[in-house]
Amino acid sequence: MKLDGKSVLVTGASRGIGREIALEFAREGANVAVNFSGSEAKANETVDEIKAMGRDAFSVQCDVSNAESVASMVKETIDRFGKLDVLVNNAGITKDNLIMRMKEEEWDDVININLKGVFLCTKAVTRQMMKQRSGRIVNIASIVGVSGNPGQANYVAAKAGVIGLTKTTAKELSSRNITVNAVAPGFITTDMTEKLTEEVKSEMLKQIPLARFGEPKDIAKVAVFLASDDSSYMTGQTLHVDGGMVM
Amino acid sequence: MADVLERVTKIIVDRLGVDESQVTLEASFKEDLGADSLDVVELVMELEDEFDMEISDDDAEKIGTVGDAVNYINNK
């Protein structure tokens, strides 16, 4: 097992990619704090599955764009597990619209959760990780943060921001043995992408050299790699896990 | 006062690997003791633990010398 006994906090872990990351980390031996915003029942399902594997887990409600809420979530995780080895910044939302139609509120909501949330969670765990002289931060960005995508100005700006934040955090914390890397998923089948029309989906499929949509597991496996000792000589990187969509 | 200085000095010597004689009240963490910004943040964290107090980010930013740290702790 690659993460035996590690203490991990995964944001947005009740559904989709975050849920699969939480489960995959547990399969590799980690104890997991399962953060959710609204879906408590789903989060508890994830927790139950993890406990069934013999690991410790608990669900924790938190709006990642709220500093106080984030601080108490991190404290709860450290109190429960006694340490914090890995933070996975996964929580994210979409509010798609063309720029000319995008409401200021749609812009702010997505930036607050998807970008400010990563900053706040990162800030909240650094103290503990610096004291430990070790830590791993894995940010879930998106391939559109690299390529751009019409209709997603807010989401793309936030995800490109996460990639930049990953590099800066990596540089600031490298001397304390904390690595910070990002995963940029392509088209992954989740609730978030289910919303797209068949027409959009078939257009997207044409742009994927590996000719299939990704599964949450494709991302979770790479997140495990970035959280494990296997990637100890990597920091500040963004791995594209997108079937070759953007090279 | 002496006790606080002694405890602060011990932490600085341990953390920054400097000689005890260099740790004077006037000594600046960054300029005289070779600390970088992260070292100062860590020193503040250790002082919080040692003296069981919370030092806010605003206050922490004002701590530049050994004397600043000692005075801050004594005034709490």
What's this model, at a glance?
The complex is a heterodimer of chains A (247) and B (76). Chain A is α/β, with parallel strands linked by helices and 247 residues long.
Which key terms come to mind for this protein?
heterodimer; A: 247 residues; alpha/beta; seven-stranded parallel beta sheet; 9 helices; 48% helix
Q: What can you see in these coordinates?
A:
The complex is a heterodimer of chains A (247) and B (76). Chain A has 247 residues and is of the alpha/beta class. Chain A has helices at residues 16-27, 40-52, 67-81, 104-132, 144-147, 153-173, 191-194, 198-206, 216-227; strands spanning 7-10, 31-36, 57-61, 86-89, 135-140, 178-185, 238-241. Chain A has a seven-stranded parallel beta sheet, with helices on both faces. In chain A, helix 4 runs parallel beside helix 6. Chain A is globular. The relative contact order of chain A is 0.15. The model of chain A has no long low-confidence stretch (mean pLDDT 97). By secondary structure, chain B is mainly alpha-helical. Classes of the chains: A alpha/beta (247), B mainly alpha (76). The interface between A and B is small, with 6 and 4 residues.
Structural class of chain A: alpha/beta
Radius of gyration of chain B: 11 Å
Low-confidence stretches of chain A: none
**Total number of strands of chain B:** 0
The string of secondary-structure elements of chain B, in order, is HHHH
Helix/strand/pairing class of chain B, anyone?
Answer: mainly alpha
What fraction of residues of chain B sit in β-strands? Answer: under 5%
Give the H and E element order of chain A: EHEHEHEHEHHEHHHE
Task: Count all strands of chain A and give the number.
Answer: 7
What kind of assembly state do the chains in view correspond to? heterodimer
Strand order, largest beta sheet of chain A: 3-2-1-4-5-6-7
End-to-end separation of chain A in angstroms reads: 31 Å
- The total count of helices of chain A amounts to 9
For the sheet with most strands of chain A, the description reads: 7 strands, parallel
Biggest sheet overview of chain B: none
The general outline of chain A is: globular
